[in-house]
Model the fold of this input.
Amino acid sequence: MSAASSPAFEKTTRRVFPRHPINVPLDLIALRSGVPENFPGRCTDLSEAGVGAVVAGELAAGQQVAVELRLPDVGVPVRARALVRYQSRLHCGLEFVGLSVEQREMIRYWVYHSASQPVDFRDSKKEKKVAAAKTEAPVVAAEPAAKPRRRIRIGQRGFYVLIGCLLALAGLGWWQWQRSWNELEKRAPVGESGLRVSPETIERRIVTKVEPMYPEAARTAGTEGVVVLDAVIAPDGSVKRLRPVSGPDLLMQSATEAVRSWKFEPYLSSGKAIEVETTIAVEFRLN
Done:
């Protein structure tokens, strides 16, 4: 499979957060001629703004995809929409769209723990005694003095000041992030939730499925094909909203009416039923 380079957007959003290196599996779902298709890959870097990845498939700049990845030390996977900013030789940059507050907290939690380092506290009195003992010892041979290493000592008060500065910077970063992402979130379709599940996952949760009626006009015209619908599943498992994506016009209404009566098992997150988005494909074939 060859991965041709796709041009980046002419206007790109300036990065507010630095990206942090990461190496975890990534699942990506994109529509190919109206049919959802899964692409495996691996994350190379991550921030609250987006993710860099190596994906086994060709993507186009500006294409909207669904992304799923699991962060170390975080029990719940991150599932979100993203825009493809660029792709070159299987390497691509993805910009998150409409992350929920819970997902942002998960990414910040991982970034904080991956970047934290233990502070080295030393006993200054002990170091002074060792230095005095070295000066009193007789010199056996003249050797060039080694360049002393500069050590940074942080007292208890300095440690609290450092923590306060970090919290202030985090608050400033959060404010800048909210301002820079407001416009992008406004461009997301109204009423869509922030959590998207794969078509395979939602298909396994079907409880009641009504087959669509083949329209007589489509049968007479010899029309067949696949109708793809974007769906919002309510917490109780009912179909809350449907939006046509692709497919023959003669088959669209019949597919929509049938899927609207489907029933699914409620999708649980942290033990609570939540609203999710997915893609449903309905196939029509003439006998």
